[in-house]
Amino acid sequence: MKILTEAGERGISVQNISRHVYNMNCTFFVSPDFEEIRNYVQQYLLKNSKSNNSLIERTEQRGWYRLNTTGSNDAQQLMLQFRDEQQPVEEVKPQKDLSLDLFDTI
After folding, report:
1. In what order do the strands lie in the sheet with 64-67?
2. Predicted model pTM
């Protein structure tokens, strides 16, 4: 879901989603089979994009998927949750140097 959220309205291909999932699960000691992950991702996307109220929808381009933000209440809630996670960055004001000078200038 995180990958689809970051992809936005344009969507992302099954191949790219599979690559992201593979990289997330690849470690120094374990490297999963890429084809196995791609098959799982493809089946998951097909199964979860069948109805109009599904969280995931197909795009006009074959093999591309995106979050269904218009027809799914779950997707709208998910987008709100991801937006809430982003914290506003506070401005750091430079502090005045109140230390004493080692050398007096005349």
Report:
1. 12-13, 64-67, 56-58
2. 0.59
